[in-house]
């Protein structure tokens, strides 16, 4: 697997994780007295409305990761000649 395909795969997985987290946040917002089974693909956990601040923080972190990965994938390599 090349470096480029590795980073593309990480980007795809991160975007999938955003959907999972957003689904949990939406469910718990609409159904505050129930719990939600959050399956990230690496682990499963039962979350409730009290977990919303942590879920929002997790979502923000994953969105930042996506922005970083997209920047890495879309930037063109540059070379700088020494200024001397």
Description:
There is one protein chain. With 84 residues, the chain is mainly alpha-helical. The chain has one domain. Helices cover 61% and strands 10% of the residues. The chain has two helices and two strands. The chain has helices spanning 3-30, 52-74; strands spanning 36-39, 44-47. The chain has a two-stranded antiparallel sheet with strand order 1-2. Helix 1 runs antiparallel to helix 2 (52-74). The longest helix is centred in the N-terminal third of the chain and has 28 residues, at 3-30. The relative contact order is 0.16. The model has no long low-confidence stretch (mean pLDDT 90).
List the helices and strands and how they pair.
Layout: H1 3-30, E1 36-39, E2 44-47, H2 52-74
Antiparallel strand pairs: 1-2
Helix pairs in contact: 1-2
Strand ordering within the main sheet: 1-2
| Contiguous helical run count | 2
Share in β-strands: 5-15%
Average pLDDT rating: 90
Taken in chain order, the helices and strands follow as HEEH
User: Could you tell me the number of beta strands?
Assistant: 2
Give the tally of structural domains: 1
> Biggest sheet: strands, sense, closure?
2 strands, antiparallel
Radius of gyration from the alpha-carbon trace, in angstroms: 18 Å
Low-confidence stretches: none
Helix content: 55-70%
Distance between the termini: 39 Å
Principal-axis shape equals elongated
Structural class: mainly alpha
Give descriptors for this structure:
single chain, mainly alpha, 61% helix, elongated
In short:
With 84 residues, the chain is mainly α.
């Amino acid at each position: 697997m090349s470096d480029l395909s590795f980073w593309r795969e990480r980007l795809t997985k991160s975007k999938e994780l955003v959907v999972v987290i957003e689904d949990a946040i939406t469910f718990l917002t609409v159904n505050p007295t129930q719990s939600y089974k959050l399956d990230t693909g690496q682990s499963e956990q039962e979350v409730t409305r009290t977990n919303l601040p942590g879920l929002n923080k997790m979502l923000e972190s994953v969105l930042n990761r996506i922005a970083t990965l997209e920047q890495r994938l879309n930037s063109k390599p540059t070379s700088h000649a020494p200024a001397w």
